[in-house]
Amino acid sequence: MIYLQLFWVYLKIGLFGFGGGYAMLSFVEYEVVRAHNWLTQAEFADIVAISQMTPGPIGLNTATYVGYTATGSVWGSVLATLAVCLPSFILMILICRFMDKYRDNRWVSAALSGIKPVTVGLIGAAALSLMNRETFIDLTSVGLFIAAFILTWRFKVHPILMLLGAGVAGWLLY
Questions:
Q1: Which of 27, 124, 159, 170 has the greatest count of CB atoms below 10 A from its CB?
Q2: Taking the CB of residue 82, how many other CB atoms lie within 10 A of it?
Q3: What pLDDT score does 11 carry?
Q4: Is residue 27 part of a domain?
Q5: Which domain holds residue 143?
Q6: Residues near 148 by Cβ (< 8 Å), separated by ≥ 6?
């Protein structure tokens, strides 16, 4: 019975957890700690901390850890992880089928042409909203950005190498 409950809870989280992993943490905490008592508040805090330190999205990592902790089995981890991914997976399949079918439609093409610059603008707005007096970008950061942009765009340097190089450059310069 706990496997069915776990699947249902993480299916709901995957379906209604908009805004990314950190935005869905309160939803996860409500379901896992308060509604089902699978974990204590301290255990949940530990799982969130571990999920932040491990590679991958925090929503998937917490699903994996909670699934194991709640059931004591790897199958609980697998089930919770699949359940939280399932809504996005189905949605992407539907979108891909839609795009394959209507790619050449002039209305869809026009909508996508409008979405592209808006997406760039939203990313830029998010970056600007994170800036304040303490984290304002200096000229060295701008120089690193320009160098990274040119190296990846013009000279096709692999993004992983670029990240490593930027990390080393940041360590040396700051």
A1: 27
A2: 16
A3: 95
A4: yes
A5: 139-173
A6: 162, 165, 166
User: What interhelical angle do 139-153 and 159-173 show, nearest 10?
Assistant: 160
The helix, strand and coil proportions of the chain, stated in percent and rounded to the nearest 5, come to 80, 0, 20
Contact 85, 15 (CB under 8 A): no
For the chain (length 174 residues), average pLDDT per consecutive 10? Answer: 94 86 86 93 90 88 93 96 95 91 89 87 75 70 88 90 89 86
* The pLDDT of residue 136: 64
C-alpha 161 chain-centroid distance: 22
> How far is Cα 6 from Cα 74, in angstroms, rounded to an integer?
13
Q: Hey, is 75 helix, strand or coil? A: helix
Domain boundary among 60, 95, 130: 95
Q: How far is CA 80 from the centre of its chain?
A: 17
Find all residues with CB under 8 Å of 31, minimum gap 6, and list them. 9, 12, 13
Q: Are 19 and 90 in contact (CB under 8 A)?
A: no
| Listed residues 34, 60, 95: the one ending a domain | 95
Nearest Cα neighbor of 63 from 14, 134, 115, 126 is 14
